[in-house]
TrEMBL record, chain A:
HAMAP family in UniProt: GcvH
Similarity field: Belongs to the GcvH family.
Residue span(s) of domain Lipoyl-binding: 19-101
Protein name: Glycine cleavage system H protein
Organism from which the protein derives: Muricoccus pecuniae
UniProtKB/TrEMBL annotation, chain B:
NCBIfam families with a match to the protein in the record: gcvT, PRK00389.1, PRK13579.1
Record keywords, A-Z: Aminotransferase, Methyltransferase, Transferase
Pfam families named among the record's database cross-references: GCV_T, GCV_T_C
Protein name per the record: aminomethyltransferase
């Protein structure tokens, strides 16, 4: 399993074989607050990097979740439909949103590593 | 981020930071939207125990002079002249077209009236009320005062030992001037959550001491996020979302605030429209809405029936106590009956929903009957 990478829009990506798993960062779940609903993409959907493909709703507001890389949606995390609070309790693990078969795996390496992401979060204040 | 440097602060700004409040801009003020516990926990703490909200951003003003009650009736359809000393009432400020300039609270303190106004509207209100006053009656804003809301079934037990006067004896909408934790306070038994509770007005310099005393006795600090989800479950409208200058009291389903005498005399701004809508029905009506499933529908979501628009969601979110999404909206009167099937157009998809009576959760106010029963 590869190192976890991060997008500026606060998603994480982890490559395992040919499939990349995507979720929102712990910082993002903390900023959103209690998650009450998620809307997930259908498998087979072609997505571009930066495309809004999922929605996460907290008590207060709805936010888009973006595909950090281009590719084809392979699966969505059905567990989130029944238990959206998984996003809060385990954002980087059980709270994953969807998987993508990357168009180009090298796109993942171009994203931020954990240290760079931490600096990015600090810069956003 | 919003330029927080230009936002005003309440006297509790330091306490909010100390408690880890996440500050956001609201009506020109830096206010806590939540504390580390989160909106869900703060909401549930209010329903099961007691929550403390800083609502010092709201407008407070006194109406002084002989005939203040009659003067206020020039701009509101509420019964103010018959409001007894020690009592408070909910009222609407109307424009000549019958639109709602604001909703507010008016308390009779014996020698003067005391008003609590929405933060976003207080300047407009003071102007509108001031313009209608006869010589000898004046409106005096009190920006030197802070306001705390202690809400929930545990509120009385928390406040009672700190107050010199008997808050336990206060009925819903009762008013008591009494020191709290040694600070002179104006206490009303009212709020914006559907729960029993109190609003406590104090001089700005005494606010932190009172807030700390209430927190020390077990009140959970709660922010604007919980305040919004609590009032939504309670079916209470929010000015600027559910009601505004285009909405009439009849459309807003707030006719309970029209005084009986006023509905005989029809001597208030916009009376013609209100009377016509009472006789023939308004074009649209504020209703409660329960979406099916778990997906919230937010403000400005289109409401449709068979693909045709019939209205708009004005407030919507997730109700933590209901464990389900809740909303309210304005719909064409023909489709406003309880149980009407609606579609909420969320991101291009139709979410099934139905109109429902409000409040979504029963109010638990300390009514007079409750005191006798207790």
């Amino acid at each position: 399993m590869s190192q976890t990478r991060f997008a500026k829009s606060h998603e994480w990506v982890r490559l395992d074989g040919d499939v990349a798993t995507i979720g929102i960062s712990d910082h993002a779940q903390s900023a959103l607050g209690d998650v009450v609903f998620v809307e997930l993409p259908d498998p087979g959907r072609e997505v571009e990097a930066g495309e809004a493909v999922a929605v996460v709703e907290s008590v207060k507001a709805a936010s888009d979740v973006y595909a950090p890389i281009a590719g084809t949606v392979a699966a969505a995390n059905a567990a989130l439909v029944d238990n959206p609070a998984l996003v809060n309790s385990d954002a980087m693990g059980e709270g994953w949103f969807f998987t993508i078969t990357p168009r180009d795996k090298a796109d993942i390496e171009a994203l931020m590593d954990a240290d760079a992401y931490e600096k990015h979060v600090e810069s956003e204040g | 981020m919003a330029d927080t440097e230009t936002l005003l602060e309440t006297p509790l700004a330091g306490l909010h930071r100390e408690l880890g409040g996440r500050m956001v801009g609201f009506a020109g003020y830096a206010m806590p939207v939540q504390y580390p516990a989160g909106i869900m926990a703060e909401h549930l703490a209010c329903r099961s125990g007691a929550a403390l909200f800083d609502v010092s951003h709201m407008g407070q003003a006194e109406l002084r002079g002989d005939g203040a009650a009659a003067a206020l009736e020039r701009v509101t359809p509420a019964e103010v002249q018959a409001l007894r000393p020690g009592r408070q009432r909910y009222a609407l400020l109307l424009n000549e077209a019958g639109g709602i300039i604001d909703d507010f609270m008016v308390a009779n303190l014996g020698d003067r009236l005391f008003l609590v106004l929405n933060a976003s509207r207080k300047a407009v209100d003071v102007e509108a009320i001031g313009a209608a006053l006869p010589p000898g009656v004046t409106i005096v804003p009190r920006p030197d005062r802070a306001l705390l809301a202690l809400q929930g079934p545990g509120a009385e037990a928390i406040l009672a030992p700190l107050a010199e006067g008997s808050v336990a004896a206060m009925p819903f909408m009762g008013v008591l001037e009494s020191p709290v934790a040694g600070v002179p306070a104006l206490i009303t038994r009212s709020g914006y959550t559907g729960e029993d509770g109190f609003e406590i007005g104090v001089p700005a310099e005494g606010a932190e001491a009172v807030a700390r005393a209430l927190l020390a006795r077990g009140a959970a600090p709660a922010g604007l996020g919980a305040r919004d989800s609590l009032r939504l479950e309670a079916g209470l409208p929010l000015y600027g979302q559910d009601i505004d200058e285009t909405t009439s009291p009849v459309e807003a389903a707030l006719t309970f605030s029209l005084g009986k005498r006023r509905r005989i005399a029809w001597d208030f701004p916009g009376a013609e429209r209100v009377r016509e809508e009472l006789d023939n029905g308004p074009k649209r009506l504020r209703v409660g809405i329960l979406p099916d499933g778990r997906q919230p529908a937010r403000a400005h979501t289109e409401i449709a029936i068979a693909g045709l628009p019939v209205g708009e969601v004005t407030s919507g979110g997730f109700g933590p106590s209901l464990g389900a999404p809740v909303a309210m909206g304005l719909v064409a009167r023909a489709h406003a009956a309880d149980g009407t099937a609606l579609q909420l157009m969320v991101r291009g998809r139709a979410i099934p929903a139905r109109t429902a009576p409000t409040p979504f959760l029963p109010h638990r106010y300390k009514r007079a009957a409750g005191i006798i029963a207790a």
